[in-house]
Each structure stands twice: as structure tokens, then as C-alpha cells.
């Protein structure tokens, strides 16, 4: 039996999304594949831990271990304020758990592994993903999904020499042996303590700065983002960084569907029916307010502009998202983002 380690980092608010991730991952695994699953956390309740462990044990092809890392970042002298990190509107988007994913070399339980996969939990796995562990990592610190050219503006705050090889979050295959060998844990902590500029995409920025281009690229089939479909399905679309239809293949032949920006538990979004199918299969309760859009969209759309929450209203109804800014001044209606 082949055993593959994967770790996650989330808080109590993401327990149901994590259940969806585990249910879809284990249901999609090939026979003979066994996953060692780990959760780095700072206070997930004992009841939530037990329910997630029960879910995993039902499948019989994985083991789930919770690892408390409470106080690790504070002990390292890392201060979280808006001068160094993008905290999101009213601190709604940023959690310390987003930075814990950058520190697998500090976890003793991972010393047995030469490589490990990190994954977000705002995903659905729709095919076996064990082949990702065969990705070549010689001389590299990690492999992730390279930011497409049409999103180049998202890295405009970054040093020009690092922008072209910037990898997004969502999923990282991490070369623990190389990270340990080069003492990268200390370098990553130093960047968190004193970032060279204000971080916009906190965990992604830290790892791209630390790795300094020593990154490989994964197929976007492992991080298929559904709301890109309306653009990528155009037959004449070509992305300068993905000239051979790789992005289009990711939309139509995904292995992992990643709900970046808009979350299906907060309202309608592209591909949300898939997430709700797996949520029902998991047996976990629904979360969020259906028909309304949570603060994550406001944080995503206005990440570079600090606009008070009370000046922004957003909602999704009938597949369209309406954003109101200053209520009586102007109103933006975004294009339809979910299929009928």
C-alpha cells in the first residue's frame, strides 16, 4: 500500500469545508492509495476533531492526526498588523492558520517525510491525486501552480525578477528534505517577522520570497478555478504562460476544484453544486448564509484598497453578484458567475 502525507491548516470556522475536502479526497482515491492526513491548528474543538476523525475512519484509506501549534508564531516574535500583512476587511479574511502552512519543517511529526503535500480546504477532489507525489523536486523547495499571465497584476507588488515564477496558494508539494537542508524554517520566520514590504497574499508572498525562484510548477488540473471558465472556454483564448491549452484542460478535466475568492457555503458560485453534493455526502452541517456573499469577496475584490465594511454591500442572487459601494453613489453589477 502506498502512503502519501498531506497537511492542512485551518480553524474552527472551516470544519465543514474540511469535511468536504476529506470526503471528496478519500472517495476519489484509487485502490491501494492510503493518505496520512495532518491538521495544524490553534484550537479546533475536541468535538470537531472527533467528527472529522470519524469521517476519515469510515473510508478506511486514511488516518487523520491533529497537531496543535498554538503559540508558535507568537513565540517567534511575529506581530500581525496591517503594516505588514493584509488582514482583510475588519480582519475577516486573515487568520494565523494561513501562515502555519509555511512552516512544515518545524513540525516534528513531519521529520519522517522527505516531501509532503499542503492543501487548502476550500476544494473538492474529483479524481485520484496520488500521482502528484511523483513530481520532480530536485533542487527545488516546492511546486505549485504558476500565476497565469492574465492575473499578472496580482503580483505587481512583488520584486520584478520574481513575478514571472510566482506560484499561487491552494496546493503546494513541498520538498522537506531540501527545506531542512538549507535551513529554510529560520528564513521563513525571519520574513514573517520583518517583511520587506506589505504582504498582500500573506502565505503565498512569504513562500515565494523565501524560495527565491526555486519553485516548480504543477498543472492547474490540481487547482481548477471555476469562475475562470467564461474566459478560458473561448476558443481563441491564449495565455502567454500557458500557451498549449493547459488552463482550458484544467477547467474541463480537473482533479481538484478550488473555490478561490467566492465560497459555495456563502452563496451561489460557479461549480457550487459540486461542493454541496460532497457536503451532503459528508453529513456535516451547512455553514454560511445562502444567498448572501460573505466578507471574503469584499476582501478579494478590494484587497489593495482599504474601504470600510459599512461602505460596501455585496450579495449573490440568481447567479449574479451585486456590489454596492457607498450605497447612493454608484452600483456595480458583475457578470454572471454561476451556471443555471
Structure description:
The protein has helices at 15-27, 46-59, 72-75, 97-100, 160-163, 176-181, 184-193, 202-211, 229-232, 246-252, 272-282, 295-301, and strands at 2-9, 33-41, 62-68, 115-119, 123-125, 142-144, 171-175, 215-217, 224-225, 256-258, 312-317, 320-325, 330-333. By secondary structure, the chain is an alpha/beta fold. The relative contact order is 0.14.
The helicity comes to 25-40%
Rg estimate, integer Å: 19 Å
Task: Give the class from helix and strand content and strand pairing.
Answer: alpha/beta
Distance between the termini: 42 Å
Known CATH architecture of the largest domain: Alpha-Beta Complex
Quickly name the level 1 CATH class of the largest domain: Alpha Beta
Can you count the helices? 12
Number of domains: 2
Strand order of the largest sheet: 3-2-1-4-7-6-8
Please state the oligomeric state of the protein chains shown.
single chain
> Which H/E pattern describes the elements?
EHEHEHHEEEHEHHHEEHHEHHEEE
State mean pLDDT (0 to 100 scale).
86
Q: Could you name the ranges where pLDDT drops below 50 across 5 or more consecutive residues?
A: 290-300, 316-320, 327-332, 334-340
User: How would you name the CATH homologous superfamily of the largest domain?
Assistant: Spore Coat Polysaccharide Biosynthesis Protein SpsA, Chain A
What global shape is seen? Answer: globular
Number of strands: 13
Q: Please summarize the sheet with the most strands.
A: 7 strands, mixed
Note the beta-strand portion.
15-25%
Amino acid at each position: 500500500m502506498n502512503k502519501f502525507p498531506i497537511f492542512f491548516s485551518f480553524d474552527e470556522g472551516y470544519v465543514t469545508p474540511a469535511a468536504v475536502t476529506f470526503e471528496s479526497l478519500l472517495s476519489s482515491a484509487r485502490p491501494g492509495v492510503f493518505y496520512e492526513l495532518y491538521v495544524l491548528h490553534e484550537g479546533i474543538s475536541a468535538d470537531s476533531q472527533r467528527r472529522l476523525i470519524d469521517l476519515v475512519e469510515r473510508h478506511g484509506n486514511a488516518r487523520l492526526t491533529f497537531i496543535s501549534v498554538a503559540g508558535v508564531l507568537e513565540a517567534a516574535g511575529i506581530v500581525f498588523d496591517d503594516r505588514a500583512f493584509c488582514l482583510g476587511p475588519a480582519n475577516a479574511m486573515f487568520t494565523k492558520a494561513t501562515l502555519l502552512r509555511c512552516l512544515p519543517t518545524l513540525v516534528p511529526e513531519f521529520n519522517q517525510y522527505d516531501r509532503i503535500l499542503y492543501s487548502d480546504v476550500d476544494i473538492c477532489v474529483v479524481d485520484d491525486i496520488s500521482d502528484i507525489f511523483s513530481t520532480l523536486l530536485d533542487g527545488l523547495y516546492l511546486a505549485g501552480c504558476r500565476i497565469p499571465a492574465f492575473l499578472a497584476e496580482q503580483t505587481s507588488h512583488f520584486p520584478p525578477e520574481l513575478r514571472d515564477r510566482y506560484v499561487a496558494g491552494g496546493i503546494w508539494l513541498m520538498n522537506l528534505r531540501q527545506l531542512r537542508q538549507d535551513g529554510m524554517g529560520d528564513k521563513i520566520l525571519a520574513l514573517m517577522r520583518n517583511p520587506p514590504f506589505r504582504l498582500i497574499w500573506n502565505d503565498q508572498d512569504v513562500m515565494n520570497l523565501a524560495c527565491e525562484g526555486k519553485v516548480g510548477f504543477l498543472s492547474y488540473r490540481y487547482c481548477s478555478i471555476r469562475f475562470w471558465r467564461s474566459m478560458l472556454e473561448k476558443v481563441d483564448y491564449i495565455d502567454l504562460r500557458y500557451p498549449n491549452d493547459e488552463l482550458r484542460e484544467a477547467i474541463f478535466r480537473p482533479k481538484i476544484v478550488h473555490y478561490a475568492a467566492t465560497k459555495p457555503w456563502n452563496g451561489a458560485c460557479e461549480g457550487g453544486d459540486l461542493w454541496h453534493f460532497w457536503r451532503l455526502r459528508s453529513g456535516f452541517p451547512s455553514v454560511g448564509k445562502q444567498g448572501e456573499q460573505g466578507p471574503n469577496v469584499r476582501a478579494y475584490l478590494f484587497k489593495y484598497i482599504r474601504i470600510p465594511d459599512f461602505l460596501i454591500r455585496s450579495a449573490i442572487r440568481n447567479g449574479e453578484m451585486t456590489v454596492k459601494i457607498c450605497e447612493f453613489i454608484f452600483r456595480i453589477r458583475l457578470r454572471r458567475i454561476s451556471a443555471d
